[in-house]
Amino acid sequence: MRIGSISGRAKTAFARTLAAFISVLALSLVGSPGVAQAADSGAGRGCECATPSIDRFQQWLASGEGTTVPATGSLLVREGRGHVAKIDFVNAEWHVFVVWLGNKFEAQADLTRSSGFWMTYSATDDLYVQLRPASQWSGGDKWLTLVPSTRGKVVRKFFPFTPDKWTWLPELGKPSHTFASALSEARGFVFVGKTANKLKFEGLRIDRYQPPCV
């Protein structure tokens, strides 16, 4: 039988079957809205490390410098189905905590191709984050950028690695190295602040870099 001789009823049945097949195929490719939303909301949790971590960063550490709660050790605490980092800065003095970018002190990361990082956090006052290179780890004379207060609300903010967004504080000293060199051998983010502050961190993602679990 030639295709042109198919009856009207057969044509209708064939059209319905074809439409159903296309609908199923499209659903399998893009997924339903509910499935897509669930995948997005769980993206940061599904790839966590076996030990407590935030976006695979396992080492959030109070350094013992300044009066903080906790005073030393890990800032990671269980919250919901994952972990967050919490620390309080107490009194008007310099406070310090550290995030090791390679999850161990000896590691370093080349961030020269990265555009910056996203951070999900809350802070009751301003503070700074320093980018400390492996070869110039010690001392306060480092390149830093402002982490603005959120008035205690959780926000997600992008911090670019463009040199004009990074500076230094006269009180801590002028870096003897370039910002580009700090990016090329980044060992850790060091957060510093001189005022009382209540801090919480829920996310940290660096463009073009994912830390290894250790």
From TrEMBL:
Keywords noted in UniProt: Signal
Signal peptide interval: 1-38
The name this protein goes by in its record: Complex I intermediate-associated protein 30 (CIA30)
Species per Swiss-Prot/TrEMBL record: Actinokineospora diospyrosa
